[in-house]
Amino acid sequence: MTVPGSFRKYLLLGAPVAQLDRAPDYESVGQRFESSRAHQIFQGVTRNGDPFLFGPTFFGPTLVPLSEEGKGYSGNAHWPNRGSIRRVYPSESIFECKLIFLESFQATANIRHGVNNRRDLLYTFQSDPQITLPFAKNDNHPKNSNQQKDKAIFMKNKNKKRANKDRGIAIAFAQKIYASPNQKKFYFYDLKYTYNPVDRHKIINKINDKLRLEILKNPTPKAYNDLKAIHRFDSTDNLLCEIEWYFYEIITYKKTITTFLENKNLFELSLLDGKYENSRIYLDKIIESCGVSLWSLENEFALREYSGGLQSNLEFFSELSSSTTSSPWVILLASFYSDRADKNISPTKYFEKVNSCIEEFSSNEVSRISSYLKYKLDNFLILKSDRIHILQMEENSSIIDRYETFKAILHSIIHKKEKEKYEVLLSIIKKIKENIEDVELDIIFACLTPDKNNLFFSPQTKDFLHICDLYSCGKYEECIKDSFKSLAYIGNSVELYDLSARSMCHLGEQDLAFTSLSPLQLEIIDCLKSIYSKDEKFRDSFRKLYKISLTFYSHKWARQLYTILISEFGSEDNSFFSISNLLNSQFINPKLSLFFNDKNISANFLHSLTKSFGGSTTINFLHAVSSGSPELLEHPQHLKIPHERATLYLAKIHIENLDYDKSIAATLPLIDNFKKEPNFFYYEKAFVLLSKSYMKTCNYKQLIILIVDSYFTNENTIRRLNTKDIYTETTSANSHTVFQLCQYPILCYISGQDLYQQYVACDNFLKSHKAEVPSELNSIVFADCVQCYIFLLYAVFNEGLISKLYSIESTEEVEAERIKILHKLILADPSKTNEYIAEINEISKRITIRKYIQFVEESKIHIDIEGVKKYADDNIKDSFDRYHDILKFKNPDINIVSINRHNLLSIEKDGIQQLFLIEDAKLSSFKTLFYEILDTMISSKEFGLNNYLSTRIRHGTLSANLRKPFDDYKLISKIDSTGHYAPIEWWQKNLLISEDEQTQLHHFFSLFSERIDTIINQIKTEWIQIKTENRNADGLFNFIYTNNELYVLLIQTSTISNWNDFFQTISQEIINRIKTNLEFVRFTISVNLKHIFLKELTLLYNNMQTIESNANLTPVLTSIISCKTQIQTTLQQIAYWFNLSQDKNIESFDLVLAVEASLELISNLYNRTLKPSIHNNLPKNFKINGLHFNHYFDILTIIFENIVRHSELTNDENEISITMSSTASAINLLISNKIGPTYNHNIGQKKISTISSEIANQNFEFEKTSKEGGTGILKIVKIIKHDLKSTFFSVTPALYDEMFQISIGINAEGLGYENTNN
Amino acid sequence: MKILIIEDDELKLEKLTEHLNNTAAQHTYTIKKSLKSGLREACLNKYNVIILDMSLPTFEISRNENGGRFNSFGGQEILHELKRRNIRTQSIIFTQFESFGEQHKEISLDSLKLQLQNYFTGMYLGTVFYNAANTDWQNKLDELLSSIITKECPND
Q1: What counts of helices (H) and strands (E) characterise chain A?
Q2: Containing structural domain, residue B97
Q3: In this structure, is residue B156 part of a structural domain?
Q4: How confident is the model at residue A827 (pLDDT cuts 50, 70, 90)?
Q5: Chain A: closest CA distance from residue B52 (Å)
Q6: Which of A132, A399, A480, A1030 is the least buried, fewest Cβ under 10 Å from its Cβ?
């Protein structure tokens, strides 16, 4: 037997060692079972004292041997983590709640599986529906009325002998159980299914309370701890058999149910009326007299949410979930009920949760759980295959829940029109009706009975008929008035809300202030009106009503509301919801006549209505519709109903009679009329009918035009249509006429097809117009459908879709095409020129930002050769003059160097290897000169390569880029305040694995994070460094020159007498060396580092596979594999950085765009959402000379990187204010950001004061800027002073209570900024 | 045999081409690294077989191109488009993932295989699950390739 994947480990983990260990005790000693249970509680194995492996306490250990057949758990080998058994408290996650439940269920199911043979042997006959219900055929059955009478007489006049006999049967039954307690389950099963009902009743009446409670499974639990606390026992798979058992229980508890129904109605009415105090009283009354139930649980949440708000809702949930003895079922359902009532949780969110829970139980083995959850939490549409499961699972709920479920199952049978079951069900309903007064039973009875002539209709039906007549005759004001009057006493009748709202659609705005309806009731009417009239509040109203219908899900009126929403919004088959609307009514609705699908039966039903209440417009109208004959509707004046309504029904009848042309002829004029004088209530109905007719007649062209036209007229009018199916069908027709329509790709777009399908539609369309891209379309062709043409270009051909087009090959081409489209739109739709220009600007801005970022990435490695030359002219040229003089020495004996192994050169001369002293005065002087130039080019804090490596690569950027792919795929974590790697929250939330496994997972991630961080740190501190003879042995920038190399260089340059030429030659040599180094760095990163990272990822992957439930770790494994691909791309991109920047510059740049580019770069790099507010006080069209772009960008990037890295804010809090202004000679930047509560102000203040005094120091030392890992503010000073060569400047950092601020003023003289306006 | 490889993972590509070079059969192959470039190549030139990854970027990633949208079912989309264009080149899915898509849209490799089998009958040869740790994928690939070796190569 298998268990759904993610829960399997729980079952294994929480294996009931205690039970297995104790089993022999119980078998041999019997009564010692209690001690076992105590032991289990102590061990934390069970929650409420029940040994969960066995479900019911009596599912004894004798069943364990069954596992030897391979069907059960055998031996401890199956429980590898005995020591891990833990108590799972209800306050823990919902999944754990499910786990506990599953544990008990699974164990029960497992045992059941093992005993199938026995059950089958005993009760094979039960599978025959003909004999399943003995009472239906058996004269002895108490449901036979004569028999019932006999029984009553018998009971009244029972004599002692008979009484003794009864007691005798009960005693015999009890004795059997006490003799073989471990067989209790089978005896109960026997009693339930094979005893004749009379004997069964006698036994249940006579046996002791404890046994009775076990058999009936506590139908009236006094507290939520007792609800669903008694485990279910085996059930048959025979629906009618289960229904019969429910019937028995219902009759047994008829008084409880009657009390419930009376108070339930009052509870519902008072809640709707907003009288929550009364609701409280009625709910308490129900609980007091009938016990608690899932119904009361659900309504407790609804009442609390409405009367006391979310706090009250959560208080109740907290109270329940903190109880360690509650059934896991109760907590599981309570958590969903709480969500459902919570006004802040949208239906979508609620259903996401529900569906993911249901999915967990969707495998065959536990499908009954998913069936039950669907019924309880999703919607009340019960599938045929789910019925038996639902009945089985509801078996241990309260009698109230059982009764409600019983009726729901009957609804499902009625919906499916399973007439073969009607006879049996009728006899049951009749019997229940004799004992319980419930209008729902009357409606069910009306549906089941073949004899519609003798139906009994309540006065409510009469009132409703009257209101219906008012509506049918178009007397809308009166209809509203009377509906409101009736709502005062049947406020839970949705039909009245419905008719009021419909009437209002015809009358327009209505002042409802005068009404005595509650805010909730008014909200329902208002929302219904919006939905029917398809107004701008349509979606909002739908959401509101949907939420209301979910909150009061157990109320019939809420279900009716739900059915209305489905029929107004859903495009699927909603026949169930149509009948469900009628079945959940407070009275027999005359519209039931339309359900019977048989003219005679409908006629009988309507006749019966006429007989009870006399003639009625509604009845006549329904008769005309249900008869299916158009003649009666062709003269609506006879029926006294408005012409439009009659026409719509007429069109409907034509469709039913397959006369589509007539239907089209009837609806087309309506469409035109309702469009001219907008009435979307009727328009939508006519539209649906017309679409149906077009579809049936394969008139796809007209159909598509109609849909798109209606969409443009009022997009809410097409919601009922399944546009997806229509699109598919029209596409499969492969018609050129269809493909040519510009409405065709629009249909695809509005029907919500995926992007590929949209592309297919657009491709078909473009091809049919001989265009490759939309900008090639000839606008003249679309002269008669300009609106569509504009929509097509603007909405459909968005950038996502353009990227799919066959001829488009890059992002740049996508953007260029979109800009072309926007230009076409400006011509076609000049009224929205500003909108289109705004988008063009947006795209242009994006392109510019991308260009900036790309430029920055390409110019990370830079040598300021001009700066070096200038410096060398001033400082090194003297050395050259000296060197030049030495070169002129004639006397080689003037030796100014000492001999050592470094200045000896081994050269092959005349075939012999000879040793030469190479370092003479000339070489020594040359070396001095060479190293002076080299140092300036490589290590100078002003111009050197190392300076750029530090600012543009090592200052955060490299680490962040290398970490990014691991971070993106949630494989790496950060060190927390305890100095350890924190668990990765994502996996904690999204993986359904045990705590032990989470611990293992965390361990592996920590190891991985540590190793990756070590590697990254090594790359930063050891690899991306300048390697010299004395420093950074592992540095990849190798600037060690051997004497041989220098000697060769000396020879090469010895003839150069001009300083400039000499500098040019030497600097070129150094640049060549830099290029060689860069090539090596690129190779090391893209090849060596790639293999190092891939190896680490493989190790992580292998480690993950050692975790026991690695089947549930698929998302982690997938992430690792994806990361493997991503890291290669990332390394390739990082490798690109290591190219010497080209001598190209941005011409001039916009500072605002530079700010945005920098923000985007940092935001992507650190996966942070930055919330900038940019205040641009610069003159219009202010531009700065492009020569300085990189320096400005460096300043901005240092600041933004600091904010992300040091301000200790969460992802959502990164608010940054950037103010830019300028004077005639200066550019000012003021950047401030919030700082997190954990930020250490003392340290911050100290740092700022040190930095401020450094800056203030006239002799600012550049050496200080080489310190890495700091704030980078001194680097900013260096950039301003030396790269931007600003003679006056200010850099002022400041720290306030909750804010950090940096103010920068740059003397702009000579920066060449432009103000094109000035 | 003329093979079109559509694969964006450098390492996988390296291993794949290395293996193709080492096999006795004479293979010539063209490499494309994105959905769009792969699709275009498959439409413009004839190949005996296409070996394609399932998850692909829209455009080829380069210094100036970030690849556009990432397509979890890019390989499947290529097959759809080829089928729509009546190009029935036989294809092998070459993947290292056991599941595709995210959350509610997630689909296992086995289910995907079944879908491909049903929808691309005659085009879809099979799936090779790439695992760097073993050589099973090489055997599977050889097996699938040998099933087409005997067939006539289409002319360009």
Answers
A1: 61, 12
A2: 2-149
A3: no
A4: very high
A5: 15
A6: A1030
